[in-house]
Amino acid sequence: MQSPGTAQESAPASRRSKITPERAQELYTAVLDLLRESGYESLTMEGVASRTRCGKSTLYRQWGSKPELVVAALHGTRRNLLSDIDTGSLSGDLHEAARAVDAASGKDTALMHALSHAALQNPDLLCALRSTLIAPAIAAIDAMVERAVRRGEIEAGNPAADYVSAQVLGIMRARPLLAERYADDAFLTRFIECAVLPALGLPPSPPAPPGAGTR
Questions:
Q1: How many CB atoms lie within 10 A of CB 119?
Q2: Is the overall model pTM greater than 0.90, yes or no?
Q3: Rounded distance, CA 12 to CA 54, Å?
Q4: Which of 49, 123, 161, 183 stands the most exposed, by the fewest C-beta atoms within 10 Å?
Q5: If you average pLDDT over residues 42-51, what whole number do you get?
Q6: What is the distance between the alpha carbons of residues 11 and 9, in angstroms, rounded to a whole number?
């Protein structure tokens, strides 16, 4: 069953035109920019065609529908800002993660907000959102916690260890709704020091110098 709006935006994709990888990246970037600017409901194939000076028929032949194009754009631009963080301590890792989240908030956090409602109505879109933005961040934070357990910083049986990623990602998602602003470095740092570290039995500690936590 098609999701709302798909029928109007769909077209047969039996014959695909050739689009170079470089051109595809341009199209994907434009799609995500339009999503951040106006949201999913306002995104149209016509708007993408106009922004990229690409024929609308070419978009339909290549991707078939708006949801398929958005899914392709998510997968085609996937990145994980937190995967290279390793400062040698959990506190340092989380502070470095706060900096990375702050730097990317105008892109990744805005994109999650733009797609959240539509993703709940479209399984393919939800799967793409989870696999490209949410799952990699969860995996990176879980890895930070696992390293802390191996180093003996926190006890393996600490029940709070299972919820660190939910705390950090949850506050990122909630902050714009609660305070009409993104969770920036300063806010996330205080949140980590006052809520995350105490739950793990760790004292607050000064964050590592900027850039010290990447490998």
A1: 22
A2: no
A3: 18
A4: 123
A5: 95
A6: 7
